[in-house]
Amino acid sequence: MTGGWIKLYRQLLEKPIWLESSPEQKVILITLLSMANHEEKEWEWQGVPYKAKPGQFVTSLESIRKKCGKGISLQNVRTALKRFEKYEFLTNQSTKQNRLITIVNWGIYQEKNAELTDQPTVSSQTPNSQLTTNKNVKNDKNEKNIHHDGDEIMKEIFQLYEKTFGVLNSVNAQSIQYWCEDLSSELLVEALKRSKGSRSFKYTEGILKKWEAKGVKNMTDVKTLDEEFENGKTQSRSNSQPSEWKESGDDF
Fold first, then answer.
1. Element (H, E) at 50
2. What domains are there in the chain, each with its CATH number?
3. Which of the residues 28, 167, 204, 240 has an alpha carbon 20 to 30 A from that of 156?
4. Which InterPro entries match (predicted)?
């Protein structure tokens, strides 16, 4: 897989997945394309032999980080993978040992039989070009919808931030974008709502860091964590009650 080459189309420079990515994410994106198999190859996946198709590869966060080179952290890789999934650029299945990454629509541009020729035959030109056009139009619409929805969500988050803490500075704006990508905008909104009455965005980040450490992925996980906390408080009161009664009895 170290030899050969990949196709990189100039249209990528006009796509939201490129325009809205950080420099680190762009490095990771190109690295992922370079790591993908160009032909079928056998790997070990979930403890058994697995034949990865072109555009797929079995790897780990650490392997991706090393391939990217200096300046890229594991957190950069983790955040980029989540972001690229939202753009439907790839799918990402993980286990405790490794992960299977599939570059979506790899075959449209990368496979040998998908290369464009100067003089395509009449019989193959129309169906193939129509298929490619339809898929490209669908992908463009998906990216535009994601970009539009993302703008609306970020607008709501910024308004909620300023309502809670005042004027938003550039440092916290970057932090907000980071947390939206690393966890989700839904969880960030919830954390901001729970920060009412606090003086600093650090309070919000404290909530988010706690959720991240607990493996929280969505609001269902948040509710479960809240219930566990309340049950723990109830159990603590129940366990301490006899001791308090005993102490009161001794006083008499």
1. strand 48-52
2. 10-115 (1.10.10.10), 148-236 (no CATH)
3. 28
4. DnaB/C_C, DnaD, DnaD-like_sf
Element (H, E) at 172: helix 170-182
Cα distance between residue 48 and residue 51, in whole Å? 10
Instruction: Check pLDDT > 80 for residue 138.
Output: no
User: What pTM was computed for the model?
Assistant: 0.49
* CB neighbourhood size of 207 (10 A): 19
Torsion of CA 230, 208, 214, 20, to 10 degrees: 150
**Alpha-carbon distance 68 to 30, whole Å?**
9
Q: How confident is the model at residue 242 (pLDDT cuts 50, 70, 90)?
A: low
Token output for 231: 């049950």
pLDDT digits (tens, 9 = 90+) for 154-180: 888 999 999 999 998 888 887 888 788
Tokens at residue 220, please? 């269902």
Res. 69 pLDDT band, cuts 50 70 90: very high
As a whole number, mean pLDDT of residues 25-51 equals: 84
Residue 226: burial class (beta carbons within 10 Å; 0-12, 13-18, 19+): exposed
Are 188 and 157 contacting, i.e. CB atoms less than 8 angstroms apart? yes
Which positions ≥6 away from 84 have C-beta within 8 Å? 17, 29, 32, 90, 92
